[in-house]
Amino acid sequence: MNSLYLIIPEFHRYSLEHLLWLLVGVASTIFWIKLGKKQPDEAGQRRIGVLQSLIPVGFWFFITLYLALFEQPVDLNLILPFHISYFMNLLLPFMLWRRSFFLFEITYYMVMGGCIQSLLTPALDHGFPHALNFRFFVVHLGLLQSILYAIFVYGFKPTWQSFGRAFLWTNIYCALVFGINYLLGTNFLYLSKKPNVPTLLDLFGPWPWYILGAEFLCLMMYTLVMLPFAFGKQPEQSAEVKA
Questions:
Q1: Measured between alpha carbons, how far apart are the two ends of the chain, in Å?
Q2: Measured CA angle at 118 (ends 182, 95), to 5 deg
Q3: Phi, psi of 126 (to 5 degrees)
Q4: Is the CB of residue 166 less than 8 Å from the CB of residue 109?
Q5: Under 8 Å between Cβ of 234 and 160
Q6: SS3 at position 185
Q7: Which residues pair with 10 in a beta bridge?
Q8: What are the residues facing 126 on neighbouring strands?
Q9: Element (H, E) at 136
Q10: How far is the CA of 234 from the CAs of 107, 125, 197, 230, in angstroms?
Q11: 175 three-state secondary structure
Q12: Residue 224 belongs to what H/E stretch?
């Protein structure tokens, strides 16, 4: 199977391929939000929300199964869902099904802060139509799509209390993944070493200093994505909005 990849080009940031993927994501997001808004009731909105969120889950599952079966040796970094984007990919269908504001307020910051950066500066080697290329863009664009669906169809808005809770849960998740990396010898969330392509982490030196730099970047990005909601009326939301 690896011989088939010899004809697949490398991925280049800001190339036509990169731009086309982003345009596909914008068009898809607009389509699903408009479809959700046309639903006559809340149940219809939920069905559409869950359906669109399960598409990237399906892509992740089948491509990961393919990698586990046909790529040798098996790379645990590629098949276990502990990179935060792939973990949230499995979580967001539940958030949309339950209309859970608690899950929304945590995942909003992680998705809008992390996925936007990942989509603008992808840590990706393989170009289209490599399986990893498909999985990366479908999942990351799908995460943004699900969060924007919750905002524009469900009417969810993050609060400053959400900001604090999201930062706390981000660090709890990082601590858990740090332990997983130690046990399995993996590099989820790049907590063991920096990615092999240039990223903002390069500004902060070697391990472990770049992890402290990542905390600073996290606060900055979380603040930036809070700004669109910072000066409006802060909604009062329960932990679970509609069971």
A1: 46
A2: 80
A3: -95, 135
A4: yes
A5: yes
A6: coil
A7: 126
A8: 10
A9: helix 131-152
A10: 18, 42, 39, 8
A11: helix
A12: helix 209-230
Cα dist. 184→34, 178, 180, 188, 211 in Å? 43, 10, 6, 10, 19
The secondary structure of 103-133 as a DSSP string is HHHHHHHIIIIIIHHHHHS----B-TT-HHH
Rounded Cα–Cα distance for residues 163 and 146 (Å): 19
Q: Other C-beta atoms within 10 Å of 122: how many? A: 19
Structure token digits, residue 154: 């469900």
Distance in angstroms (rounded) separating the CA atoms of residues 36 and 21: 23
**Tokens matching residue 169:** 């849960």
Tokens for 221? 């990005």
What is the CA angle 61-62-66, rounded to 5?
Answer: 120
pLDDT digits 0-9 by tens, 145-177: 999 999 999 999 999 899 999 999 999 999 999
The per-residue pLDDT for 1 is 45
Instruction: Check if the beta carbon of residue 135 is closer than 8 Å to that of residue 10.
Output: no
* Identity at 107, one-letter amino acid code: T
pLDDT digits (tens, 9 = 90+) for 111-131: 998 888 889 888 788 888 888
* Both structure tokens of 5: 């990849």
